């Protein structure tokens, strides 16, 4: 329900219709969704259990489904063109090989919370922006600028020419927890299994490893991203 509320609050034009399971159970958040949708003149349909279950299929839900227009992806050149060379958006996050939609959604939620200015999404080797991703993002998929880019390594080389520093999270990196990296900054987040790709690591300015003090040698990628991003905020980045 939280994801539905977030898009109603921040991007209601993308909601074509709402479907609610007609179970007659009073719920404050459910009532808030209905009231918000009606105030925006968004159609709300109440469906019986069988009809709602046929509509939802295998989708995990809380009795609410939003029918959405396609997610808008910004072009990288257009996105960066909205800023002058002295105030480039920072930090940015690039997704490199995150194929699980739940992991991607959780990462977008972390990015939104940490004040990331945009998430760069390559055309290949990235999970789809699906309902599963939307739910895991708790609505961040609709509030965080999502920027389409091409080949990650080529995109990074272009950003470096503009003055961006590149920090890639990697188990093979240096434990530099607490280091503040200069603006403008691009943070690369790879998959949990393989991390950032070799071509990306090769051209990154810093390969960053978080210190692991227990028996487990890695963190969930959204958790690792959150720890790193918040160190940047705590050390003065706004």
Report on this structure.
This protein is an alpha/beta fold. The chain has helices spanning 2-10, 28-39, 49-56, 76-81, 101-114, 131-136, 152-162, 198-203, 221-234; strands spanning 15-21, 44-47, 64-68, 74-75, 92-96, 118-122, 146-149, 165-175, 185-190, 206-209. The chain is 36% helix and 22% strand. The two termini are 30 Å apart. The model has no long low-confidence stretch (mean pLDDT 85).
Q: Compute the gyration radius: what is it?
A: 20 Å
Mean of residue pLDDT values? 85
Which structural category fits the helices and strands? alpha/beta
What are the low-pLDDT stretches, counting only 5+ consecutive residues below 50? Answer: none
SSE inventory with pairings:
Elements: H1 2-10, E1 15-21, H2 28-39, E2 44-47, H3 49-56, E3 64-68, E4 74-75, H4 76-81, E5 92-96, H5 101-114, E6 118-122, H6 131-136, E7 146-149, H7 152-162, E8 165-175, E9 185-190, H8 198-203, E10 206-209, H9 221-234
Parallel strand pairs: 1-2, 4-7, 5-6, 5-9, 6-7, 8-9, 8-10
Antiparallel strand pairs: 1-3
Helix pairs in contact: 1-2, 5-9
């Amino acid at each position: 329900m939280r994801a539905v509320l977030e898009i109603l609050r921040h991007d209601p034009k993308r909601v074509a219709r709402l479907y609610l399971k007609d179970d007659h159970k009073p719920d404050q958040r459910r009532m808030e969704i209905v009231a918000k949708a009606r105030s925006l003149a968004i159609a709300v349909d109440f469906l019986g259990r069988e009809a709602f279950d046929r509509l939802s299929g295998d989708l995990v839900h809380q009795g609410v489904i939003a029918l959405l227009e396609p997610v808008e992806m910004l072009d990288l050149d257009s996105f960066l063109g909205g800023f002058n060379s002295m105030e480039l958006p920072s930090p940015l996050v690039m997704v490199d090989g995150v194929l699980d939609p739940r992991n991607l959604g959780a990462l977008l939620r972390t990015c939104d919370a940490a004040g990331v200015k945009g998430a760069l999404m390559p055309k290949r080797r990235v999970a789809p922006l699906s309902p599963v991703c939307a739910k895991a993002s708790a609505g961040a998929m609709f509030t965080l600028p999502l920027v389409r880019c091409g080949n990650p390594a080529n995109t990074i080389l272009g950003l470096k020419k503009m003055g961006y520093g590149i920090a890639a999270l990697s188990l093979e990196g240096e434990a530099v927890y607490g280091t503040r990296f200069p603006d403008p900054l691009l943070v690369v987040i790879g998959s949990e299994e393989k991390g950032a790709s070799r071509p990306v690591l090769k051209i990154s300015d810093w390969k960053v490893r978080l210190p692991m003090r227990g028996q487990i040698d890695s963190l969930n990628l959204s958790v690792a991203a959150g720890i790193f991003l918040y160190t940047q905020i705590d050390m003065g980045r706004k």
